[in-house]
Amino acid sequence: MPLLRDDEPFTPQTDLALSSELQTCKASRQVSASVSPVLHDWKILANNPAESYTSGEIARAKNCRMKTSTDRTLTINADYRRFIEELKARVISARISAARAITHEAILLYWDIGEAIVAKQKALGWGDSVVERVSLDLQEAFPGSTGYSPRNLRSARQLYLTYCDPAIWLQPVAKMAKQSGSAEIWLQAAAKLNQDNVIPFLRQLVAEIPWGQNLLILNKLAAPAARLWYLRATARFGWSRNVLLNQIKAGAYERAVTEKKTHNFDLALPEHFAEQADEMLKSSYNLEFLGLRRAVREREIEDRLISRLQSFLLELGYGFCFVGRQHRIALGKKEYFIDLLFYHRFLKALVAFDLKVGPFEPEFAGKMDFYLNLLNDKERGPDDQPSLGIILCAEKDDVEVEYALRTKANPIGVAAYALQSKLPGELKGKLPTTKQLADIVRAAMDEGK
Predict the structure, then answer these.
(1) Higher local confidence (pLDDT), 2 or 327
(2) CA–CA separation, 71 vs 433, rounded Å?
(3) Hey, which CATH number is domain 262-427, 3.40.50.1820, 3.40.50.200, 3.40.47.10, 3.40.1350.10?
């Protein structure tokens, strides 16, 4: 755009572009009252080119042009920044998808290698030393690759042998499908499994998680049902190796599936939602990470949970989003406070926690039922499911809980928490179990007869 000196007269011949800027300024109401007469005089200038504008008028007009140009530049920059952020998000998403695809194919490759080695050993009588030979030849053919070590190939063989027997896996897979409903695509397929397709199904399932997590499940667990549960949980929740190891040590499978849970979800919720809520609830919660070794008040437990919120969220399970502590709800002139409030992304429901340092008492259920009524009336979103309540207490009697919840209209679960392991780590496995002690007592009684 042509430039004018401050003392240079302006005429239609010197800069027609500035005239256009003057019109733009007026249209956008950016020209002051002292500059607007210039626009009127321009019509005279068109018929009388000898006329010229003063330097003050030109300065004001150029200043207006600079502001308009600057505003337009800022708008373009803001749009560009948003554009770049969108592109960067797309690049990250593509990288994650590519990494997942590579991981998936790598696990399928390990499965196929393990299957091929087992088949040749059975058909030709090859011994275990063939694994070292195959490893050497593959590393020579693909220099720089680190995935064909003898250890990895032995693990690949173990992976295939662990999941290749349909007689072992058909029942656990079918049971898992029945327990979890049909919310997931792979579980819908699992409900139709038979002797012929259960192994291909398991092959795809193990490929959903990374190699390191597969090795943990192979080496730390023996029961098919437990292996299947951790496979599914790791794939759904994206557990890292450390998180998976902690979940196994904390007995997540036992507390989520095998131990009895106490709630009224089946009475207060539709069947499909009750199943999902049951899956969300654990029979007990391990709060050992709080580091408490003495009697404490409820508020101190709450303070510790908030200070270690990440650990608490991992213990709760996937999908919980923290809303607040001592969440205030007003009713008339009174106000009430919920200890901890969460929102569950997949259940699409508020989840209220009430912390108790002592054993469960029936009146706790009435208080939680009241809180849930308030949440549903005052804070539940239009598309949300009914709010759920979980009472965390030091211990509970299942029969007492069942009677306390029988008449409650809102879904409430009761779970116990453990502030420390029942046995110190150094004594685990070194003392007899309850069954072993009972056997000893029976043997002694038989000898005394």
Answers:
(1) 327
(2) 77
(3) 3.40.1350.10
